[in-house]
Design a protein that fits this description.
Blueprint lengths: L7 E6 L7 H12 L1 E5 L18 H6 L2 E2 L12 H17 L3 E5 L3 H9 L5 H10 L12 H6 L2 H11 L1 H5 L6 H14 L3 H10 L6 E9 L2 H17 L2 H13 L10 H4 L7 H6 L2 H31 L5 E5 L5 H20 L26
Parallel strand pairs: 1-4, 1-5, 2-3, 2-4, 5-6
InterPro entries: Dimethylallyltransferase, IPT, P-loop_NTPase
Family: Belongs to the IPP transferase family.
Organism: Thecamonas trahens ATCC 50062
Length: about 375
């Protein structure tokens, strides 16, 4: 467990899809001699460059990126893997005298990395030592097999070893189910007991992040999302999804809740077209894909407000509604760069943090997702 005084400052760009996170991350990396650590649960997969909006060849040549396209498309990936790999990447970036810039919209990954760390094995051991009833024998559970099982099977397995967590977790919340199972199997302690201890005495994160949040008015954001979907289709999204669908149909990919193919927005929405190949189906699927992406963007906003802001984590919004060259430079790039330089120097960032709602603060340790 890292001591508080050992925490190092990093810069993180958060926000919704299509708002300009990657654009801002690139600008900051070029200005600060930084490297980008992707914080995106789909960008880790190879074979989905359009569906996951991976950096282009030009962007990869200009700025070194980490945790992009390194997992097989038919594989699985978890928040535990992300945290371990992000730690290694960030520490390596620091060791080479550069600035780590975490960029992405998978906010629960960032939460585990730099806000509310996942419960450690040491904490689980301490919980078991203090309360032997928290220990449970889960040696009969096969995590690899459960990762590919259907939601009902995985949830039933969790209920057999941790009924408290299972009772508060819907079977379709697959990442939460898988994380709880992983905790129990790997530590021999119920996830619910470990989370309770984490909530009572939070372990400090290894890094201290500056959270920059470019955001746009929803009507503007929706229009950008629609335009991005149309552009992705023009660039070959359907062929990419077709190949992914064939891999699933052949039985060559996991269909469990953690599988990259299952998570990616697009495959499910375009399934009717991939089956019928009719223009009517394509139009209907385009509508569904745009709707799903809009809904995802709203869930990203809710996470920022309900987990980061309500917990008291300072998040600095930047108005990205005007994406003209001059508007973006004045409202997003220039203030973000100035804030990042000040942050890394240990000074005040000069920005106003998002204000927390008056409601009771959300507990980021209540349910972990993977």
């Amino acid at each position: 467990m890292a001591a508080v005084e050992e925490r190092r400052r990093i810069v993180a760009v958060i926000g919704t899809t299509a708002v300009g996170k990657s654009k801002l991350g690139m600008a900051l990396a070029l200005a600060l001699d930084g490297e980008i650590v992707s914080c995106d649960s789909i960008q880790v997969y190879a074979g989905l460059p359009l569906a996951s909006n991976q950096p282009t060849a030009a962007e990869l040549a200009a700025v070194r990126h980490h945790l992009v396209g390194h997992v097989a498309m038919d594989g699985t990936y978890s928040v535990h893997q992300f945290v371990a790999e992000a730690h290694a990447a960030i520490d390596d970036i620091f060791a080479r005298g550069k600035v780590p810039i975490v960029v992405g919209g998978t906010h629960y990954y960032l939460n585990a990395l730099a806000v509310a760390p996942l419960p450690s094995a040491q904490l689980a051991a301490a919980v078991a030592a203090a309360d032997p009833s928290a220990a449970v024998d889960a040696s009969h559970l096969d995590l690899a097999a459960l990762a590919q099982a259907d939601d009902a099977t995985a949830h039933a397995a969790l209920a057999s070893v941790d009924p408290v967590t299972a009772a508060r977790t819907h079977p379709s919340a697959r990442r939460s189910v898988n994380t709880a199972l992983r905790t129990v199997v790997q530590t021999g302690v119920r996830h619910s007991n470990v989370v309770k201890a984490q909530r009572a005495a939070p372990e400090p994160a290894r890094y201290e992040p500056l959270l920059l949040w470019p955001r746009a008015e929803l009507d503007v954001l929706d229009a950008r999302i629609d335009a991005r979907v149309d552009a992705m289709v023009d660039r070959g999204l359907l062929a990419e999804l077709d190949a992914a669908a064939e891999l699933l149909a052949s039985g060559g990919a996991s269909q469990g809740g953690d599988a990259g193919l299952v998570q990616a927005i697009g495959l499910k929405e375009f399934a009717p077209y991939l089956e019928s190949r009719t223009s009517a189906a394509l139009e209907a699927c385009l509508v569904q894909h745009k709707l799903a992406t809009r809904q995802y963007a709203r869930s990203q906003i809710k996470y920022i407000r309900n987990v980061f802001v309500r917990r008291g984590v300072k998040v600095y919004p930047l108005d990205a509604t005007d994406d003209s060259a001059s508007g973006w430079e004045a409202a997003v790039k220039a203030p973000a760069e100035a804030a990042a330089r000040a942050w890394l120097a240990g000074s005040e960032v000069g920005l106003s943090a998002e204000k927390a709602p008056a409601e009771e603060a959300h507990d980021p340790w209540a349910v972990f997702t993977s």
